[in-house]
Amino acid sequence: MIRKFTLIAISFLFWGHISAQLQDGAFAPNFTATDINGNSWTLYDILDQGKSVVLDMSTTWCGPCWEYHQSGILEELYEAHGPEGTDELVVLMIEADEFTNIDCLYGNSDCNSLTLGDWTEGVDYPIIDSKEVADLFQVIYYPTLYIVCPNRIVTEAEAPTASEWYNMHNSCEPASGDNNMSIAS
Q: What confidence score (pLDDT) does residue 109 get?
């Protein structure tokens, strides 16, 4: 009986470890991914330019993801503070379902899964179809919204407005000394 209890307890500990989402204050894992327009994005390259990165981990079949996407908040943030604005941050949408094909992002009838519409319409920020990026961040629910500061520290957010995103960006500690993952080994 003790042996069975021990095995069950170890299983729960292991499951909790593998299913835990990346926590606030953790260092962001680096990734390189290509967006649906063929542009390559490397997280650490963006952060090394002193920019923050907003990550929207979503799926085309997720109702709350679609609602947040349709709100225009990330587009507003990108227009004001992306490359055509103050150039202080980058917004990346990550379509995180491995079974969803690119057609789902465009809302096409050839989509192999459920899609709630055209995710590209009216969106200028990059959209990346990558389950691998979501796996690096240990995403276990959608949407999962992160800001990654230039010091590579991750903070999860709960559907912030554009001004709240910008305030989080302004709250990023500078990358220096012990607070700089790029010099930590």
A: 80
Q: Give the dihedral of Cα atoms 150, 156, 162, 166; nearest 10 deg.
A: -30
Structure tokens that stand for 125 in this block: 């920020």
Residue 60 near residue 105, CB atoms below 8 Å: yes
Q: What is the mean pLDDT of the chain?
A: 86
Q: Is the peptide bond before 29 cis (omega within 30 degrees of 0)?
A: no
Strands (E), 74-180: 89-95, 127-129, 144-148, 154-157
Do 33 and 132 form a contact (C-beta atoms < 8 A)? yes
Q: What is the pLDDT of residues 59-89, one digit of tens each?
A: 999 999 999 999 999 999 999 999 999 999 9
**pLDDT tens, position by position, 83-120:** 999 999 999 999 999 988 899 999 998 888 889 999 99
Tokens of 37: 């327009």
Alpha-carbon gap, residue 78 to 108, rounded angstroms: 25
CA 144-147-89 angle, to 5 degrees, is: 130
